[in-house]
């Protein structure tokens, strides 16, 4: 029999923490009439503040305008009798500092009271928890069509999906799939989606299953158009987070040739934040005059005359 290899014993470890509990607080003391206190209260004499509460205790501050001891006659002394804490301030430094105004100055006293010191066990671990991976699993579910129980026809393309997932993410899908549609049919229902491009619906499904947008292939110029159609779809199906994401993206594409179309879209789909961005872009008469020459502005005038009136009113107010 050959030699046997022994398995190394697992390494174990532990840790602990010493915890010093503390309560903190502060008090602001105002000295009003500094010159009078300096000339009327002699060395070693003091004036007490009123009692005050801070850090769970009651305190008083003793103010010595000419110091406590003979060798500190050129200093201001502050003393907390409860803890025996003393603070010295040289009068000359105070008078030159600029903090003495109208013969007054203020001092903030910070108190930290230590409580019982205790020891606690600290658990250490080398276990690393990865980020949530449900979006990958749900995307795989969408692509596999396994267990799909509803089908959509968008243009000439068909999309299979799961009615429970759609209903959980969209109140409109919930009303359609569990309201007017009857369950128990032997065949998978097929729903016709009009007025929407297949690519837009595909992106909408991707967001429903993963809470994110897919990377857009192609040139960047196509992105604003996709975001506009996706915003319409998000509003149509009551998906507020997706709608706001589209608003944020469109706000970054606003320019002379796009602002009018974007403003009309914002008005039609009740995007108040996007409207304000457009109004801010058009805040000068020079910019507005340039936008008036675009086809988008003519569309805005015909489709949303109330927005044009609001725009004029905002410019007049400014």
Structural commentary:
The chain has 318 residues and is of the alpha+beta class. The protein folds into three domains: 18-118, Apoptosis, Tumor Necrosis Factor Receptor Associated Protein 2, Chain A (Sandwich); 133-253, 2-Layer Sandwich (Potassium Channel Kv1.1, Chain A), CATH 3.30.710.10; 254-318, Serine Threonine Protein Phosphatase 5, Tetratricopeptide repeat. Helices cover 41% and strands 23% of the residues. It contains 13 helices and eleven strands. The radius of gyration is 36 Å and the shape is elongated. It starts with 14 loop residues before the first strand and ends with a helix.
Question: What does the secondary structure layout of this molecule look like, with pairings?
Answer:
Elements: E1 15-32, H1 34-40, E2 47-48, E3 52-54, E4 57-59, E5 62-64, E6 75-80, E7 85-90, H2 91-97, E8 104-122, H3 134-144, E9 150-154, E10 157-161, H4 163-169, H5 171-180, E11 190-193, H6 198-210, H7 222-236, H8 240-251, H9 259-268, H10 272-281, H11 285-291, H12 295-303, H13 305-317
Parallel strand pairs: 9-11
Antiparallel strand pairs: 1-8, 2-5, 3-4, 5-6, 6-7, 9-10
Helix pairs in contact: 3-6, 4-5, 6-7, 7-8, 8-10, 9-10, 9-12, 12-13
Domain BTB: 148-217
Domain MATH: 24-80
GO biological process, one term: protein ubiquitination
